[in-house]
Amino acid sequence: MSYWSSTRCSERLHDKMVVAILKAPVMFFDSNPVGRILHRFLKILVGWTSSYPKRFSQRSIDTVLLVSASIIIPTVMNPWLFFVLTDGCQQQQPLIVSVIYFATYYLKTSRELMRLASICRSPVFSKISEPLDGLDTIRTRGRQSDFVEEFYRHHDVLNQANILVLASGKWISVRFEILASLFIDAVALAAVLVSQDAAFAGLALAYVVERFGPTQNAVRKTAEVENLMTSVKRVITYTKFECESGYIIERRPPEKWPSEGNIILKDVSLAYYPGGPQVLNNIKLNIEGGAKIGVTGRTGSGKSSFVAALIRMPESVVK
User: Fold this and answer.
1) CB atoms near residue 180 (< 10 Å)
2) How far apart are the two ends of the chain, measured CA to CA in Å?
3) Burial category of 53 from C-beta neighbours within 10 Å (exposed 0-12, middle 13-18, buried 19 and up)
4) In sequence order, what DSSP letters do the residues of the chain get, joined into one string?
5) What is the reported pLDDT for 55?
6) Integer Cα distance of 262 and 178 in angstroms
7) pTM of the predicted model over 0.90
8) Consecutive 10-residue runs of the chain (319 residues): their mean pLDDT?
9) Contact 314, 304 (CB under 8 A)
10) Which keywords belong to this entry (predicted)?
11) At 293, phi and psi to the nearest 5?
12) Burial grade of 38 (CB within 10 A; 0-12, 13-18, 19 or more)
């Protein structure tokens, strides 16, 4: 059921992302490299579809339930362990408080580290796809080594972020192994002090030794699920772009439009991004249908901007 639901959700997200990107303005592609867009589709969306059901249903929930059983069963067998979990000693924190503290600290840190690794991964995809478009120019100028070195540099940064992610996992593992050892010692000591029945003591120790150790694994899997949901949030942002104005038609033209090929511009201005300088300012022009015209001017006079305004890339402003 989880596989079907995650696959269904990923299909809907994928379709919404495709539609939103196809309708996105040109400014979006100027400010977002190709590698970042590919990373949204490839690493996040596809990875979430294949990893989320396994990590959530088979690993995260199952591990949390097993760890809960390893705490509840020994506590029921020997109620004195409840004070070890909740009250602690005079100069030490309760065991459950330490577990919650380390788990919360690790979840916050791993979330930021995974976001950092995701940000560092996008330039790697860009340095693979972008040189393919200008491969002839790169080979003609003999700049292969420069692009290779730049790729290695971005890849080293990605490896540094991945090493931090692995180091955070080792950090939580060491601390939870120490807490697990303390709880095992407490179970064994409590069984001796209260002269607990051998069968109950053996059952409690068996559950603690076998199940309480993977506590750090449960926290890590929970962090992975949370990071996957954070990735889904980043995907959803790609489905809420403002589309170009041509896709929103308030009033449709007549059926026989256009009856004439006239082009009329009235006070048309153009800026390549919101708040940027105007490259065209109050253009007034009337081109009769069937006429042949040419646009001439020196470099930087606005010839390309005039053509961009005609085909609405980007959208021009009419005062």
Assistant:
1) 22
2) 56
3) middle
4) -HHHHHHHHHHHHHHHHHHHHHTS-HHHHHHS-HHHHHHIIIIIIIHHHHHHHIIIIIIIHHHHHHHHHHHHHHHHH-TTHHHHHHT--SSS--HHHHHHHHHHHHHHHHHHHHHHHHHHHHHHHHHHHHHHHTHHHHHHHT-HHHHHHHHHHHHHHHHHHHHHHHHHHHHHHHHHHHHHHHHHHHHHHHHHHTT--HHHHHHHHHHIIIIITTHHHHHHHHHHHHHHHHHHHHHHHTT-PPPPGGG--SSPPPTT--SS--EEEEEEEEESSTTSPEEEEEEEEEE-TT-------STTSSHHHHHHHHTTSS--EE-
5) 58
6) 81
7) no
8) 69 82 80 75 64 58 68 71 57 67 84 83 79 82 86 90 88 82 76 71 72 67 71 78 71 74 81 76 82 83 82 68
9) no
10) ATP-binding, Membrane, Nucleotide-binding, Transmembrane, Transmembrane helix, Transport
11) -125, 165
12) middle
CB neighbour list of residue 247: distance below 8 Å, 6 or more residues apart: 23
What values do phi and psi take at 32, rounded to 5?
Answer: -120, 120
Whole-number pLDDT of residue 97: 77
pLDDT of residue 91: 43
Residue 16: C-alpha distances to residues 34, 139, 237, 250, 289 (Å): 18, 38, 11, 22, 40
| Residue 272 burial (CB count, 10 A) | 15
Nearest-CA neighbor of 186 among 79, 104, 90?
Answer: 79
In the numeric block, which tokens belong to residue 17? 């992302």
Helices 144-193 & 95-133 angle (0-180, nearest 10): 170
DSSP string, 90-124: SSS--HHHHHHHHHHHHHHHHHHHHHHHHHHHHHH
Tokens standing for residue 116: 């950092």
Could you tell me if 131 and 138 are in contact, meaning their C-beta atoms sit under 8 angstroms apart? Answer: yes
Side chain identity at residue 206, one-letter code: A
Residue with tokens 């192994």: 177
Tokens, residue 156: 């080293």
Q: How many residues does the chain have?
A: 319
Residue 188's contacts (CB-CB under 8 Å, 6 or more residues apart) are 201, 205
